[in-house]
Amino acid sequence: MGMLKNGIPSEATLCRVENGIDDLAMADSMQAFAENFHNELFNACRDREIVCVDGKAERGTVQENGRSPDIVSAYSFNTGITIATEACKEKSNEIKAVPILLDKIDISGKIVAADAMSMQKDIVEKIRKKGGDFLIELKANQPSLRYGIEDRLVEHTPVYSYTEEGPELAHGRIETRTYRVYDGLDIIADKKKWGGNMTIIEYESSTVKKSTGVHTSEKRLYVSSMPTDTPQPGTIVRNHWSIESMHWGLDHNLQQDNIKRKSTRAARNLDTIQRIVYSVFSIWKGLRKKQSDKNKGMAELIRHISMSFTRLMRFLSQK
């Protein structure tokens, strides 16, 4: 567009700039930026806030140990904003990074939704201590808990069960989802380890591939600190997948995995900048009053404003 006198900086120049920025200070700046808009957007939403926690590998960067750096983030489903991030240290993993991440944010009265990696005693204790609730997927990384629950479920009747209204057609598949909610009082053997009684949610998916008619089924288990009378916990299960959609958007719309960076610091700064960009679009959609603007997809908005500098300035100045 002729905005830069000497043209667009090369990838090598951008990499050097990103490597020269304090990545911790940049992440703190992103968190402060998010806080400025988070409360305003959330106050317009009457639902209980769901904070999704998950990690994402920066596949454009490879460390000396052959692994890609991993960044764990807390993402607000209600506002579409990344609230905070924490980078996994070298030779470490998400289990150690998640408690540090939770210390950065206020989760009192909120629901923390996470994948099986976060089903750890220290993480569960921290969520309870900070006044939040959790809903975490249960897999074989906790074998005694997982297989103990599986064995006992056949002997118990769910408190209630329900099937989501109407099968869903998406990605060429017709899917029906059923949820069964159990009281974990008589099912979980080691209740003291996990801080008390928990609710167990069994999710069963029945899928028919439209093109071939092939039928498949899948079961998953989730544990939660919320009471058994929580209405439609399956909604929270599905809302957690929003962070996966956001990660996909970073890769598909902003090409994160295709951008090569030589250092972990540069990779994290690139990730932080891209999350700010992604949040700007979510903030704009959240503050708009026209429903048609709120319904616009991220790719559609990016294409629209990238056509001219004037559109970009109007986009950034609107509320």
Quick overview:
The protein is of the alpha+beta class.
Give an overview in words.
With 319 residues, this protein is of the alpha+beta class. It has one domain: Transposase Inhibitor Protein From Tn5, Chain A, domain 1. Helix content is 39%, strand content 22%. The chain is built from eleven helices and ten strands. Strands 1, 2, 3, 4, 5, 6, 7, 8, 9 and 10 form a ten-stranded mixed sheet that branches. α1 crosses α8 and α3 runs parallel beside α4. The longest helix is centred in the last third of the chain and has 24 residues. The protein is globular, with a radius of gyration of 21 Å. The model has no long low-confidence stretch (mean pLDDT 89).
State the main characteristics.
single chain; Transposase Inhibitor Protein From Tn5, Chain A, domain 1; 319 residues; globular; alpha+beta; ten-stranded mixed sheet
Describe the SSE topology.
Blueprint: H1 11-19, H2 23-43, E1 50-57, E2 70-76, E3 81-87, H3 94-104, E4 111-114, H4 121-129, E5 133-138, H5 143-153, E6 160-163, E7 168-170, E8 173-183, E9 199-209, E10 215-224, H6 233-240, H7 242-252, H8 264-287, H9 291-294, H10 298-305, H11 309-317
Parallel strand pairs: 1-4, 4-5
Antiparallel strand pairs: 1-2, 2-3, 5-10, 6-8, 7-8, 8-9, 9-10
